[in-house]
TrEMBL record:
HAMAP family: GTPase_EngB. Keywords: Cell cycle, Cell division, GTP-binding, Magnesium, Metal-binding, Nucleotide-binding, Septation. One of its GO terms (molecular function) is GTP binding. PANTHER family: ENGB-TYPE G DOMAIN-CONTAINING PROTEIN, MSS1/TRME-RELATED GTP-BINDING PROTEIN. This is Probable GTP-binding protein EngB. Belongs to the TRAFAC class TrmE-Era-EngA-EngB-Septin-like GTPase superfamily. EngB GTPase family. The keyword Iron does not apply. It comes from Aliarcobacter trophiarum LMG 25534. Its cofactor is Mg(2+). Residues 22-199 form the EngB-type G domain. Pfam families: MMR_HSR1. GO terms for cellular component: cytosol. Signal peptide: none annotated. NCBIfam families: GTPase_YsxC (TIGR03598).
Length: 200
């Protein structure tokens, strides 16, 4: 299955001002600056689709993107999904009240969105054992419904040497290992996503 088109749909502050839950959604979540917006751009093969930045805290709203896939099935040649770019967890440099509101809106989305099918938890491959990621993992496992899956995607693997990468793969045999810089692991991630959504 090929991803053939992606476009920005809308931004929302919370689930209340989000688009109708009519299409399956894939949420990209994780620490601020881990590469959520970048991975969405890599999957969609469009550099500036989701705004990425070296300054943490770039993404401040729930951003919805409409994704079109081409299937092998002549009867149903196209299928659709939404990718959802989320603000990072644990971004320290915003005011406490704003941070609390963000977290409320974020967790509200993750907990209550009926059409959310996949949590893609992005983890910096150089720091796979951070408390914040353990908390995210625990939280998502706790709220996850039977129709949902979690994909652990380790980002920035271009920053590891080959023995570090081998060790990481041994430690996390179910992980996906990605570099947005070198475009590694992107097809594997896409396949894992479409397999759950459409059975490939
Ligand atoms: N070396 C390397 N840098 C990356 C990779 N992916 C993202 N980056 C860089 O990491 C920084 C943050 O990327 P973003 O995609 O904006 O991260 P984010 O998780 O969306 O951040 P917030 O929106 O602030 O939560 C940018 O400077 C990217 O260029 C990667 O695979 N390798
Ligand atoms: Mg972002």
């Amino acid at each position: 299955m090929n991803l053939i088109d992606a476009k920005f749909l809308q931004s929302a502050q919370s689930i209340e001002d989000s688009p109708p839950p009519s299409v399956a959604e894939v949420a990209f979540l994780g620490r601020s600056n881990v590469g959520k917006s970048s991975i969405l751009n890599s999957l969609c093969k469009q550099k500036g689709l989701a705004k990425s930045s070296s300054t943490p805290g770039k993404t401040q709203l729930i951003n919805y993107f409409e994704i079109k896939f081409k299937t092998q099935d002549l009867e149903a040649p196209y299928v659709y999904a939404r990718f959802v770019d989320l603000p990072g967890f644990g971004y320290a440099k915003v005011a406490k009240t704003l941070k609390a509101a963000w977290n409320r809106n974020l967790t509200g989305y993750l907990e209550q969105r009926v059409n959310l099918q996949i949590f893609v938890h992005l983890i910096d491959s150089r720091h796979p054992e951070l408390d914040i990621d353990k908390n995210v993992d625990e939280f998502v496992n706790h709220i996850k419904r039977g129709d949902q899956i979690i994909i652990n995607a380790f980002t920035k693997i271009d920053k590891l040497n080959s023995s570090e990468l081998q060790k990481l793969k041994r430690d996390y045999p179910d992980g996906i290992f990605v570099s947005n810089l070198k475009k590694q692991g992107i097809i594997e991630l896409q396949n894992k996503i479409t397999e759950h959504l459409f059975g490939n």
